[in-house]
Amino acid sequence: MDGTGVTAGTETPAGRGLNPDGTIAREGALDRVPGAFTGVVAAARAIIVRESGALGLHSAHLYGSVPRGTAVPGVSDLDLLLILHRPPARGDRERADAMADALDRAHPEADGVGILLADAGSVLSEAERHDLGFFVACLCTPLLGEDLAARLPGYRPTSLLARETNGDLARVLPRWRERAAAAATGEELRRLTRTVARRIVRTGFTLVMPRWQGWTSDLERSAEIFARYHPGRAGQMRTAARLARSPVADPALLRMLTEDLGPWLAAEYTAAHGEKAPRP
Questions:
Q1: Could you give the CA distance from residue 32 to residue 130 in angstroms, rounded to a whole number?
Q2: For 78-107, how does the pLDDT look when each residue is reduced to its tens digit (9 = 90+)?
Q3: Structural domain boundaries of the chain?
Q4: Cα separation of 78 and 62, whole Å?
Q5: Is 30-151 CATH 3.30.460.10?
Q6: How far, in whole angstroms, is CA 87 from its chain's centroid?
Q7: Is residue 123 a contact partner of residue 148, using CB atoms and an 8 Å limit?
Q8: Which residues form the Polymerase nucleotidyl transferase domain (predicted)?
């Protein structure tokens, strides 16, 4: 039993996001991209190819709901990771932001376009083995270039993975409160709420992940799995999942996430898994 009357063994490995050997399965694929998003994915590929030389591109990846096949037109955003041969510089960030803005303006089916930058050395480093490495190997779908997953280990739903992926929530909360206080428009508040809610739900899921022994990136399912173990906070986590998908500019809801659920979750997380070491 998992402590809530649910027997984990009744769920198959595939149903818990695992390979037959118990390692976490890669969750996305290009053939799962919904038809409504094939145009923006093709446009993203084209603009990345055009800018690849200037960026020193090693590879490009999709992640999030688009490669998982669950994206909703006009609601879901397009998430990209660009891995460079060298550490990203300020000019690379500016170039990536310009690419994201161009894609966002031309493709209303995506509610925003985000581009993360990393370098191959960091992805393969020991320090990032269970954070950025896990992200690339299990949560990212190759779009262009070498797939570094072949050079990374299999990952299991352990306390170590929980700590290294989301064990820094306590350090992030003050920054979110500062951004909320400085938000000048409803749109800024809405986007911040989506960012915060997504992170809260993912942290809530990884808090209980080693007990559930599986992986999911689906936010609604994550909230329900969390609720099995922490029923007293289930309502707040379900609200966070709803806001992650359909954010609103409501300061009271954002305060609930950053001043009530968030601090409680950070304390529980540190007690269960420890705190992630600060990165440079």
A1: 26
A2: 999 999 999 999 999 999 999 999 999 999
A3: 30-151, 158-273
A4: 8
A5: yes
A6: 21
A7: yes
A8: 59-92
